[in-house]
Amino acid sequence: MFPGPRGRRFSMNNPFFFFLILIPALVLYPGCEQEGPRISEISPRIGMMGEVLTIRGENFGEEQDESYVTIAGIAPTSSSYIEWGDGRIVFLVPEFGESGLVYVHRGNKKSNPALFSNRAAIPEPVSQDQAGIGPRILEVNPSSGAIGQMVSITGNNFGTSREGSGVYFAWGAEASASAPAGTGGPSWVEVSESEFGYDFWSEREIRVRVPDGAISGSLEVRTPRGASRPGFFEVTGKPGTKVYRDKRIYALSYSVDIRVREASSSNILYLWVPRPVTSASQRNPEILSRSAEPYIENYRGVSLYQLRDLRAGSGAGIALSYSVEVYAVETAINPSQIRVSRQNSPPATVAAYTASSALIPSDDSEIKRQSQAITGREQNPYLKARRIYDWLLQNGNIQWDNPDVDARDALLQKQADPYAAALLFCALARAGDIPAQPVAGVLVDRAPGAFRHFWAEFWIDGAGWIPADPALGAGAAPPSFNLRQDHEAYYFGNLDSQRIAFSRGQVSLSRMDPRGRTSVRDRDYALQTFWEEAAGGLESYSSLWSDIIINGVYVQ
Predict the structure, then answer these.
(1) Which of its termini does the chain have fewer beta carbons within 10 Å around, N or C?
(2) Per-residue pLDDT tens for 153-184?
(3) What's the N-to-C CA distance of the chain in angstroms?
(4) What is the pLDDT of residues 43-96, one digit of tens each?
(5) CA-CA distance, 297 to 331, in Å (whole number)?
(6) Structural domains in the chain?
(7) Are 202 and 160 in contact, with CB atoms under 8 Å apart?
(8) What is the pTM of this model?
(9) Which residues are paired to 540 by β-bridges?
């Protein structure tokens, strides 16, 4: 028995007593769950084997116990640890490669990554009098900056034009738990021409913008005469983290079959065949086989094939197979760290991806009105984009098999399929002054099968392109597709690797012949202004573009 107020007594057999005990237990229970470790900084960021490295952050644990650190998948020996505390770890750097991602492992949880680079792998500036005809980097100015910032590279032997040349920044993916140590190490991401990354190119100077996906590490200039010794660039100003993981390698094939009905001499049929795009999350597309050589290998992301002097009653075609690597993208953005000012924004990117077009009518009065109603007085572009995404999920009636509508009709009728949902998201974002672009491709089912699909990306200064998939967020997926349980939250800022992209934005093509007759394919696996162009005496023909066939999937 326990004394109560005013002389009343409480018995342990009294249910009210257990209710009083239960309340604090319920309040305290959530706090018992162990939070994962988080790295805030490492010092130094550049060092050598055997030097002391300090990691600062939180939730490391007061004692090391079974916890440990890895650099590029390499764990220091137990004797290498000098200090281990809940907010600080000090240890000696183990032997590893050029650079690698640092993680703190505690229990079954892993921290966010931080990049540590090996000083021994970073070259000294190359002097002017060194021999050789390959490109040489003398200075990178500034030597650090944010995604999208302009960088000047001075040196020599760059070439008078960029033909066949490029600038590459360090890029890294997180290795899976089952992958061998070091397999997730740094690689490269090229400056993007389609995103206005190249500003100037001459024999002695190059000006580029830091590409989406770049991380601190090496920087190279590559030309037909060779690759430069790498310089070093530190990526700063990130308002959060962006991680690439869950790598999948797809083998795929597709084809075009032509049947000629009426034709006279001297005719040409041009076929603009989409290629898997190259981006920070989709990498290394490689031709496995093709039935003919293209007239132009890569023009604005498509291969141009030319079929000449076709005869009535004849047939022709193109068959292709590719392999491509696709990574899931996962972001954790802190909106308070986003600069709302446009002073450091890439002007060409902002102008191109906030412009109105027939496909994305962001200047339509209804779309502008709805965008303003959704975003209100919010100025932060990330939070504005989130409001648009949430509004679409709640009000867009997005269904996999909804009737075909465009962006404006999707808004007025309050119904959309994945195509219209992606375009409407971009239109509402652009109307709110947020750079955005639609992405077209295929979802890869577990069968495996491939379904045409559309999603979107929006630009945040310092973070680059952030993915959003309103359709999958709303649960609008093929019946057999293995949809995530957390799809509403996941598909804003994150994207799975169960897809292959064939276009980012609409690919604007120009006729090869001013009198050429073009053919458009709406809602296909790429967004192109046209797909076919008939010129000369080709009067009548039919074309059959196959679906994308997945021939194999390798999951790392």
Answers:
(1) N
(2) 999 999 998 988 999 999 988 765 555 444 44
(3) 62
(4) 888 888 878 899 999 999 999 998 999 988 788 888 888 899 999 999 988 877
(5) 34
(6) 2-32 (no CATH), 38-120 (2.60.40.10), 122-236 (2.60.40.10), 332-503 (3.10.620.30)
(7) yes
(8) 0.78
(9) 262
